Amino acid sequence: MKFDLGLEGKVALVTGSATGIGAAIAERLAQAGADVACHGKDDSAEAAVETVRAAGRRSFGLRADLADRQCHAPLIDTVLRELGRLDVLVNNAGLIRREDAERYSDEDWDLLLNVNLTSVFRLSQLAGRHMLERGSGKIVNIASLLSFQGGVRVPAYAASKGGVAQLTKALANEWASRGVNVNAIAPGYIATANTHDLRQDPQRSRQILERIPAGRWGEPADIAGAAAFLCSNAASYIHGHVLVVDGGWMAR
Fold first, then answer.
1. Tens of pLDDT along 45-60?
2. Phi, psi of 140 (to 5 degrees)
3. Phi/psi at 40 (nearest 5 deg)?
């Protein structure tokens, strides 16, 4: 018996869905029956669009630099115009810059806070208004293990992801009673472009794997399954939760 996630005919926007976790989430939502608008910074996520269409769902690509606040409202408006509604928002887009804290530049600090945190609030606010009018909707933010830990040489990333976790709770407090679920996923060490340098460093990679009880790096599909759950009817009574998907890292 197939379990129905309740996503048939829903419309989703997944930011940062050109590759990695975002692309996997877009594909998983399409497999569950959702139409998916796919966003990318430097291209319009055409590969993800084709994957969604191959699953028999509607899709189109959006190109926007989320560091620019002027792009946020047009992004939501375009989804509403092209697909008619917006039931699900996945705020996946994010950046990381590594540098010693004493040398961390103002430019990188501002960029990461704008993309990783400000855009999450702005897009949630804009999509939330539409969802609140209808009395239903799902927002899933992508947080991080560094929502709980400080990390090393990533002060802006840690600060922004800590903010994502708290923003998730703040929005849930206001919107849960009005039919909108706001939750987050905190991925562990996932094999994406953001972790390429860590995986190429034999010593650091070994240290990371030694702490993960599952004994492997996570895959984007591991996060996509959790995202589909939080976007589904099965998660209707989950509000303000940060779901850690880390192979057991935080348990050790």
1. 999 999 999 999 999 9
2. -125, 120
3. -140, 160
Instruction: Name the CA dihedral angle for 148, 150, 123, 61, rounded to a multiple of 10 degrees.
Output: -110
Q: How many CB atoms lie within 10 A of CB 30?
A: 27
Lookup: tokens for 130: 């539409």
CATH topology of domain 11-244: Rossmann fold (3.40.50)
Alpha-carbon torsion (9, 10, 15, 17), positive or negative: negative
Give the predicted TM-score (pTM) of the model: 0.97
C-alpha closest to that of 52 among 71, 62, 37, 68: 37
Instruction: Note whether 24 and 221 are within 8 A (CB).
Output: yes
Please give the DSSP secondary-structure letter assigned to residue 114: I
Residue 250, both tokens: 């935080």
Q: Which of helix, strand or coil describes residue 156? A: helix
Q: Residue 189 catalytic? A: no
Q: Show the beta-strand stretches assigned E in 92-234.
A: 137-142, 180-187
Residue range 69-126, pLDDT digits in tens: 999 999 999 999 999 999 999 999 999 999 999 999 999 999 999 999 999 999 999 9
* Catalytic member of 104, 157, 189, 237: 157
pLDDT digits (tens, 9 = 90+) for 133-188: 999 999 999 999 999 999 999 999 999 999 999 999 999 999 999 999 999 999 99
Q: Environment class of residue 111 by beta-carbon count within 10 Å: exposed (0-12), middle (13-18) or buried (19+)?
A: middle
